[in-house]
Amino acid sequence: MTEKRAWAIDGFLGLLLLVALFLGGVYCIGKAENPLLGILLILLAAIGASGIFIVQPNQAVVLIFFGHYLGSVRKSGLWLGIPLTVRRKVSLKVRNFNSKRLKVNDVQGNPIEIAAVVVFKVVESAKAMFDVDNYEQFVEIQSETALRYVASRYPYDNFDEEGYSLRGNPEEIAGELARELQARLEVAGVEVLEARLTHLAYATEIANAMLQRQQASAIVSARQRIVEGAVGMVQMAIEELQREGFELDEERKAAMINNLMVAIVSERSAQPVINSGSIY
């Protein structure tokens, strides 16, 4: 249901009109000129008084007249609307929802614990009131559902460094979670302002094993970078020596490469050895 603006006039002006009707009725009854008119005026004033309502800042009041949606009033203040209407208040303030820690399986089947915070606000009071049973509960359930869905599409950690992972790409995961939530909550007239992960960890039963795997992967990756750097440095050294006029045969090159690689790659500092003779 689409939100529309309800008919309403300034409440202070409405109060003046109602007081005038009441006083006119009292006058007619007191003077006994037309008591029936006086009673009618007082009755109209009493019925009209039921149309007085107050709208707080960042709030919308939904007006329902015998099951028919008349519209919503968003502007704060005192208002006089159609009498005998049912009024439902909907908060338009920005609110947070912290999800519980959910235990789900990532795309690789590893059990993980994940939680998120969702920042949202109502932008369509009619949808929030009529299209869902309870929009606050709807936000909670759909937030947890979207979080489970997004978590099941990505690995916790990407050891191959290809594609997104829950731990390695928090901004991208947060953006996809917000888009997924917006698609689900649009039916309730809710706008998702932000959605971010607040907790992410392996489940207890595999936490130690996955920690060892992360450490091993980090060591392998570091070693690979060290070797790549060492090869480049050795190549530069040989090319520089050749540019300076030093001619190295294949055996000398092999010995030099061996020495440089040992000195660069080794975890311990290399011990210099002075060669006083020839390698031959």
Automatic annotation (TrEMBL):
Highest rank taxon of the organism: Bacteria
InterPro entries per the UniProt record, alphabetical: Band_7, Band_7/SPFH_dom_sf
Coiled-coil ranges from the UniProt annotation: none
Segments passing through the bilayer: 6-29, 36-55
SMART domains found in the cross-reference section: PHB
Keyword Nucleus tagged: no
CDD domains documented for this protein: SPFH_like_u2 (cd03402)
Single GO term (MF): peptidase activity
Alphabetic keyword roster: Hydrolase, Membrane, Protease, Transmembrane, Transmembrane helix
Signal peptide region: none
Pfam families named in the record: Band_7
GO annotation (BP), single: proteolysis
Domain named Band: residues: 50-214
PANTHER family linked to this entry: BAND 7 DOMAIN-CONTAINING PROTEIN, MEMBRANE PROTEIN-RELATED
Name assigned to this protein: Regulator of protease activity HflC, stomatin/prohibitin superfamily
